[in-house]
Design brief:
The chain is of the alpha+beta class and 435 residues long. The protein contains 15 helices and 15 strands. The strands form five sheets. It has a five-stranded mixed β-sheet. This is Schlafen AlbA-2 domain-containing protein.
């Protein structure tokens, strides 16, 4: 069973908040609104926003936040008193297939902030089936683009259709491979539309927890449980512990922001499946400078599989990632910033910071200036593999990122390069040494 996004959601892990501002900007997966927009409003703007997120990668609409990210909180009880069933019915009236969402409130800095999470549709495209006004007309397909929701472009619609066909082909291929492995004579089919279960003379294994939820028509008898699905049974049923049959793995990350992309590296924790998704996410980011080798090493993807991803993904950073592979393969100094051997005052400062990092000294960044901070960031890009204590240096990077990433565009660029340098030295080496 898929876990609730609200239960798993920890806003501190998604957003950086300082001086009552959310530092992330609106993008293809995040939208800020000052107040809750009722779905019953005649302009139906909310419908358009929701459908556009469902057709792309899902997303969050945050209420009680200005366009510039300033937290102002909800000014009335409209969202708190709103019944989710009303929105569900509105969406069913205007769109098909069904759009899944969650609506809830969190307290941030003492203010009530509303969250409307829209799940990525598993059956794209979501299409308008009823005309509301000039904004929403029957046949419209909406799509989320950075900072805006509008009618889908030809290229993105084509990608959805191609993705749908690819998924169908993969399902057939997987089914055929399973049939070949198991043997045609050992195969049984369950029609989940009409509930008919067709098996061979062999026994059919069903998890015990699923068995409790099913009703069977067997040997001319019909026993009904309230609300239980009814199946027509041909053959035998044997309950078995589901853990012995299948393990369900759910994606931990519903929305991958730049915070998760960096923080996973700082924490040095990322499972195999999430690593694959993180690498794919970089291909669609505004910047290519993320710890991609950390993702790839943890993903356990083969080089051929990575090449295939780069061929099939339509992200705007695919070419840049390919270029990174070419430029960084035999160049461990690619991300060095500044020079520590010129004898200038700046070089001396960078060198001093470099020695502090080599000897793993405690550094209180709250007591240094912006210029001194940059000396330390530059010093990180000069560390050699033998001089890096990974657990120490990622804590340093995490501290710098959490407190100074949005200080200025220069500081942001320096931090990205420092992260990429450590990633290249440690994980890039592992990646390029793998056959």
């Amino acid at each position: 069973m898929k876990k609730s996004f609200e239960i798993e959601f920890k806003w501190e892990q998604y957003f950086i908040v300082s001086e009552n501002f959310i530092r992330q900007k609106e993008n293809s997966e995040i939208e800020f609104k000052e107040s809750f927009h009722s779905p019953k409003h005649k302009d139906k703007k909310l419908h358009k926003w929701i459908a556009s997120f469902a057709n792309s990668n899902g997303g969050l609409i945050l209420y009680g936040i200005k366009d510039n990210g300033e937290l102002i909180g909800l000014k009335n009880n409209k969202l708190k008193e709103f019944d989710n069933k009303d929105l569900s019915q509105e969406l069913l009236d205007y769109f098909a297939p069904e759009i899944k969402f969650e609506l809830f409130i969190k307290i941030i800095n003492g203010l009530e902030i509303g969250f409307l999470y829209i799940y990525k549709s598993e059956n794209k495209p979501v299409i308008t089936i009823k005309t509301a006004n000039n904004n929403i007309q029957e046949g419209d397909i909406f799509y989320r683009y950075p900072g805006q929701s509008r009618k889908i472009s030809y290229g993105d619609l084509r990608d959805i259709i191609e993705e749908k066909q690819t998924q169908l082909n993969e399902k057939w291929l997987k089914l055929i491979n399973n049939v070949a492995t198991i043997g045609v004579e050992n195969i049984g089919l369950l029609n989940i539309e009409n509930g008919e279960l067709i098996g061979s003379k062999n026994k059919l294994l069903i998890p015990e927890e699923l068995l409790k939820k099913l009703t069977f028509i067997n040997e001319g008898k019909f026993v009904e449980k309230d609300g239980a699905p009814t199946l027509k049974l041909i053959g035998d049923v044997q309950p078995i512990d589901s853990n012995k049959i299948i393990q369900l793995i759910e994606n931990k990350y519903h929305i991958i922001t730049h915070f998760e992309l960096f923080n996973s590296f700082f924490e040095q924790q990322l499972d195999t499946n999430s690593s694959k998704e993180f690498f794919r996410r970089v291909l669609h980011e505004n910047s290519v400078y993320y710890p991609i080798y950390f993702y790839l090493v943890n993903s356990k993807l083969k080089k051929s599989e990575i090449s295939e991803i780069l061929k099939t993904e339509k992200g705007n950073k695919v070419k840049d990632v390919k270029k990174r592979f070419i430029l960084e393969k035999d160049n461990p100094s690619k991300f060095k910033i500044g020079n520590i051997s010129t004898g200038t005052d700046a070089a001396k400062k960078i060198s001093e910071a470099y020695e502090s990092l080599k000897t793993k000294q405690h550094i209180d960044f709250s007591k240094i200036s912006a210029t001194e901070l940059r000396y330390y960031i530059q010093a990180i890009t000069h560390l050699k593999e033998s001089e890096i204590d990974l657990s120490y240096i990622v804590l340093i990077l995490k501290n710098i990122y959490n407190n100074y990433f949005n200080q200025s565009s220069t500081t942001k660029s320096f931090i990205r390069k420092a992260v990429c340098h450590i990633d290249l030295i440690i994980y890039g080496k592992k990646y390029y040494n793998e056959k």
